[in-house]
Amino acid sequence: MQEISMTEEEERNHPFRDSQQDARAAELRPDTPQTRAPAYRLAFTDQEFLLREELRPVRLQLELLKPQMIMDARGIRSTIVMFGGARIPSPEARDTARTPTLAALSRYYDEARSFARMMTERSLRSYGVENVICTGGGPGVMEAGNQGAHDAGGVSIGLSIVLPHEQAPNGYVTPDLCFNFHYFAIRKMHFLMRAKAITVFPGGFGTLDELFEALTLIQTGRMRRIPFMLFGREFWQDIINWQALAEAGTISPEDLDLIRFVETADEAVAIIDGWQDPCAPCDD
């Protein structure tokens, strides 16, 4: 039988044999027809079993738990969320943009980078547990956010997702906080679970999905109201007729107060600094 070190013994808070030890011991099993059969594998080490259709609820739980446990272990208490398009080029690469509009939107790459740097400088005052930049981990605006945090010498989170056109995380995400997801729904939960403020830069379907999920949670009271800022008034008012929604009665006029339009990192920081939750009780 494999020996248990005193360190492992001390770390355990139950009398049972550690699952990691059993997993290692199972790899040393004798090679027989029985031990080679899939049925003999430990369930939690059997990838073929874990990927079965019936195990979806377990996989959902694992995707929720893994990032949560890692961020809890790092002591991360609050995040600054940055949504935005993967196709927004840096100003240096604007000549390679697929459309003139994308080339013009490159200015928001710099604003995203500046905003992330400014917020990370504040994060460092809390030893990196408050105001941690959180992006989707990809290129474009996401890269700018992680790069800004890197510029400030701080950490940042990247919540990547497996896509048919697989892309590696950008090189500025803190490796220990770089996560990969299969389920969009769980990924979006992690974007919002610690969010202290949300910024949304120009983007496409994915950005719109993230924007409206978060906005709906706030509108319906399922999530507390926090600063919610859209970078680029002209872009957002061009693609979404916000006023028409209110005039049609499909949203209330006061729902438009949930968002603020900004153009620069300084404006966004000022809104965060001056934020007072309208739903919070007032002091006498």
Task: Write structural notes for this entry.
The protein is an alpha/beta fold and 284 residues long. The model is unreliable at 1-6 (pLDDT under 50). It has 13 helices and seven strands. A seven-stranded parallel beta sheet has the order 4-3-2-1-5-6-7, with helices on both faces.
Question: Secondary structure elements and their pairing?
Answer:
Blueprint: H1 6-11, H2 19-27, H3 33-36, H4 47-50, H5 56-74, E1 79-83, H6 100-105, H7 107-125, E2 132-135, H8 141-151, E3 156-161, E4 178-181, H9 184-193, E5 195-200, H10 205-219, E6 228-231, H11 233-239, H12 242-248, E7 260-262, H13 265-273
Helix pairs in contact: 5-9, 7-8, 7-13
Keywords:
alpha/beta, Rossmann fold, seven-stranded parallel sheet, 7 strands
Compact overview of the structure:
By secondary structure, the chain is an alpha/beta fold. The protein has 13 helices and seven strands.
> How many helical stretches?
13
Total count of domains: 1
Shape: elongated
- Main sheet properties: 7 strands, parallel
Order of strands across the main sheet: 4-3-2-1-5-6-7
How far is the first residue's CA from the last residue's CA? 68 Å
What's the order of the H and E elements?
A: HHHHHEHHEHEEHEHEHHEH
Rg, nearest Å = 23 Å
Can you name the CATH architecture? 3-Layer(aba) Sandwich
CATH class: Alpha Beta
Low-confidence spans = 1-6
What is the count of β-strands?
Answer: 7
Helicity level, as a percent range? 40-55%
> Which structural category do the helix and sheet elements fall into?
alpha/beta
What percentage of the residues does DSSP assign to strands (E)?
5-15%
Could you tell me the CATH topology label: Rossmann fold
Q: What is the mean predicted local confidence, pLDDT? A: 91
